[in-house]
Amino acid sequence: MRIDRERLEQSIEELGRIGETPRGGLTRLALTDEDKRARDRMIAWMREAGLRVTVDRMGNIFGERPGGEPLPPVMMGSHVDSVPTGGKYDGQLGVLCGLEVIRAMNDHGVRTRHPVTLVIFTNEEGARVQPAMIASGV
To answer: What residue spans define the domains of the chain?
Structure first.
């Protein structure tokens, strides 16, 4: 099974334009308009991939692809917030690679025993709200 490299690159470029800085990085601080736009874009892509999307009280986003059995989920993901003038690949690459794995499984008709869950943690960087990673620790 192979991922769709072109689709992944397009997703990276599209998400990377949200909060883009003139030098190619991005500023997408947690809980700002830019962060919300990125999170909304991710939710739309997750739903397009057939995931059941939920958001917990800390704002963490979970997209679940059902498994064939009632087993604990296999989870993957990261964050989409950044530090000021952060790197375009930090955080969002983990989220987008996880999404692409799920898309590829869908494309190839892969069934899993365990549910597969993609998670996007809120405020991982802690650049705007302290402490960092508070939402992933709850």
So the answer is: 5-137
